[in-house]
Amino acid sequence: MTFQNKTNQRNKKYTDIGEINSSQRILETMCNHIQMRYGLIRKKKGNKWENCCVYDYQSQQIIVQDSDIYVKIYQEIRKGLEPIYIDNIDRCAKQQWGELLQEFGLKSYISYPILNKNKNIVGHLSFMNDKPVEFDRPKLETLFPFCGDLIAINFSDKNETQHLKNMLEQERIYSKNRDLILFSLAHDLNNPISIIKLLSQYLEQNLENGTQKILAKKIENTSSRMKGVIDDILDFSNTRFGREVESLTELVSMEQLIQQILSEFEVIHDRTVLTNLRLPLNVHSDKNKMGRAFVNLISNAIKHGAPHKEIEISAFIEKDNFIFSVTNHLSTSHLPNTPDLFKPFVRGLGSKGLGLGLYVTKEIAKFHKGDVEIVREDTKITFKLWIPIK
To answer: Is 351 within the bounds of a domain?
Structure first.
């Protein structure tokens, strides 16, 4: 008997489906030990069978074979779960088996079922040769159960791995669709909210009635918060979809930018802020993105900091790095789980936002080849953003 041997495609079929594994090594070892020409592992998937691995002892390699000879032999001989050992068809106890093997040019044959832990058949291990082979049957009866268990475990691992891959692919598709929906919603809402904010500012400046001016201010503050959420979503989408910001050719006065942002916070938040800004030079960066990062870190301190404690903000140059840090006090019940803080959609206790601010901030720092670090000391927490200035 001769299987069609495509040596120029060695391992391709099995590599593609990830089957070059311990099952193959077991098959090679057993073929070399028994010295039978062909070894074959078949795997059962539902009601169907497929060749998992075929080894040619003569050429000492895995082969790709397309013959249905083995299937015919298996269907005729394999009944039940008992192993079959035929060292010479001339001494075969069942004449019809010998005649079938001889029809295909075989003189010796071994068939061993592979069972899972529930004793259900999940595969099949067989060896065949065109000459009689003398083998130590008692020894094989000891080896095969062990080999069969190992192959069954390997099958199970492969099935579990494929299941996990399918789940990950479904999650990837879901995540991509979710991001696209968020981006579309944010993009559509951005202009209307911006217009509402501008109109509220206009009304506040031009209305004479004090009550109406207060209402206009409330509309402005609310629209500002909504605009912040929309900006977070748009920044999140930009990082997810791989969009790049402008090249970092602009020299930005970080001190002026920070002062501007702090003045805006003074209007809408009554918090004590201690500042220490020591910035003797300008920094190459994207002004809008860095401003967004500063706003996110300050907003985070206001939202999650102890309400009657001061917030400390520092900005300085150290070892060729620009550093912006925000420190706030936390109550013990609000200490965060720091490893999760920079994950998207992870919100702090009591937060009404989307949980994107810190994620976006870290992505902005990474774009500038920097990072955001967290330092905790008792009930104080510091977020330190740094980017290189050279």
So the answer is: yes
For residue 377, the cross-strand partners are 380
| Cα–Cα dist 303/377, whole Å | 19
Q: Are 254 and 275 in contact (CB under 8 A)?
A: no
Note whether residue 116 is domain-resident.
Answer: yes
Give the model's pLDDT for residue 382.
Answer: 94
Q: CATH code at 338?
A: 3.30.565.10
Residues 145-181, buried b or exposed e (16+ Cβ, 10 A)?
eebbeebbebbeebeeeeeeeeeeeeeeeeeeeebee
* Bridge-based pairing state of the strands 380-388 and 321-329: antiparallel
Q: What is the mean pLDDT of residues 125-146?
A: 88
What one-character-per-residue DSSP string does 199-236 give? HHHHHHHH---HHHHHHHHHHHHHHHHHHHHHHHHHHH
Mean pLDDT in residue range 245-261: 81
Packing angle, helices 22-34 and 137-206, rounded to 10: 170
Virtual torsion, Cα 5, 6, 9, 15, nearest 10 deg: -30
Range of the domain at 88: 7-135
Q: Are strands 38-45 and 380-388 parallel, antiparallel or unpaired?
A: unpaired
Sheet holding 48-56, edge to edge: 61-62, 48-56, 38-45, 121-129, 108-115, 84-86
